[in-house]
Design brief:
This protein is mainly beta. It is 5% helix and 51% strand. The strands form four sheets. A 14-stranded antiparallel beta barrel has the order 1-2-3-4-5-6-7-14-15-18-19-20-21-22. A three-stranded antiparallel beta sheet has the order 10-11-12, with no helix packed on it. Strands 8-13 form a two-stranded antiparallel ribbon.
Length: 378
């Protein structure tokens, strides 16, 4: 699971919570969900995270039974932005995997890299003071191979891209301690190819030394879940247009009690990918069939604030089914926290925004993953 760190810390169970820019990858309606701290008619949220690649190098990343990566130099990262105007909102959240296919090349030799980028571009609208939010947009994927001959010269022999619709809904009855949400994503088939592809003597097209696939594919997905909160802190406060009384709305939020325990759970169903291999198999140039059947991933998470207004903690677990035939599922355990930092205006762009630093760990048999993130504290 490569996702914003709050989502990972809760085991990925975020479709039924669907709040904040981090939730866009879990529920397409999240772009328009107003957070309890949102005290202005126009609001925004941003997140940037990076996974530490050294933790992946000796793991079975694809759960295919083999430990280690074909290429040892790579970068995984996530970034997102959401903008809200009253009940309407838009958001963009993406993740990038970038592999260096020639890590031992001399400085003057061409350097070949492969990049897989996935993104969600969504918009949504809230009804009944935020009790119901609907949203939709596009989920896309791009696979590119590029060759850099110098710092200023770059050739892209292969670029494949595609996109497909997704829709989502969140039901959060005003003043109730529970939520439910779901999203559906159509399969993405990125068969459009661009670049200077070279035909091989064996009849196979190649780019940067790699056999060119027919498409880059993301299977259809259904993600549905719930959130339940106990404690004095409200989960679903009614959101009304705050124009003219922003100070009052902000004061009301900061005077709420912060003690709470939030339980989230969900199920992710991913469809088959006929004729596919995993990204790792593609980089290794091995024909290892992947995704021949529909898989189901249950997820569960727990979030609390053990040190009020200073530290938030998360626990989670999920069962990862293997997309490879003959390999068993494995259970993951996730851990995360957010630590409040000081206020910084970003050179006058963000007022006196209070910031936080987050960390996460995702552990399973033959797998470990650690990440760091910076974002706003609320």
């Amino acid at each position: 699971m490569l996702a914003p760190l709050r989502v990972t810390g809760l085991g990925g169970a975020f479709a039924g919570y669907a709040e904040g820019v981090d939730a866009i990858s879990a529920n397409a309606a999240a772009a328009a969900v107003r957070e309890p701290y949102s005290a202005t008619w126009f609001d925004w949220d941003i997140t940037v995270g990076a996974y530490l690649p050294a933790t992946f190098r000796n793991t079975d990343f694809d759960n295919d039974g083999r430990v280690g990566f074909t290429y040892q130099n790579f970068v995984f990262g996530t970034a997102g932005l959401s903008l809200k105007w009253g009940p309407f909102g838009v958001g963009l959240l993406g993740d990038v995997q970038r592999y260096d296919l020639s890590p031992n090349a001399n400085p003057t030799d061409p350097r070949v890299t492969t990049t897989l980028a996935r993104a969600h571009l969504v918009a949504g609208y809230s009804l009944a003071d935020g009790a119901v939010t609907i949203g939709g947009g596009l989920r896309g994927a791009t696979l590119a191979v590029d060759i850099a001959t110098s710092a200023l010269e770059r050739n892209v022999p292969l670029a494949m891209t595609g996109a497909a619709p997704e829709i989502g809904v969140l039901v959060r009855p005003n003043d109730a301690p529970w939520r439910i949400g779901a999203t559906y994503r159509m399969a993405v088939d990125g068969s459009a190819r661009f670049g200077t592809i070279t035909p091989g003597v064996d009849g196979l097209d190649r780019a940067g030394g790699l056999v060119v696939p027919a498409s880059v594919h993301l299977p259809w997905e259904i993600e549905a879940g719930f959130a339940l909160q106990v404690g004095p802190r409200p989960l679903n406060p009614r959101w009304r247009d705050p124009r003219g009384h922003e100070a009052e709305a902000r004061s009301r939020y900061w005077n709420w009690p912060r003690e709470r325990i939030t339980v989230v759970g969900e199920v992710l169903v991913a469809g088959p990918s006929p004729g596919s291999v995993s990204l790792e198999s593609f980089l290794a140039q091995q024909d290892d069939p992947s995704g021949r059947r529909t898989t189901v991933t249950p997820r569960l998470g727990l979030e609390s604030e053990p040190i009020v207004d200073r530290l938030q903690s998360r626990l989670g677990t999920y069962v990862e089914p293997s997309r490879f035939e003959g390999h068993a599922s494995r259970q993951h355990f996730t851990f995360g926290f957010e630590l409040r930092l000081g206020a910084w205006s970003m050179f006058g762009l963000a007022g006196e925004q209070v910031w936080r630093i987050s960390a996460v760990a995702d552990l399973a048999p033959r797998y470990e993953n650690f990440g760091l993130s910076i974002g706003a504290w609320h």
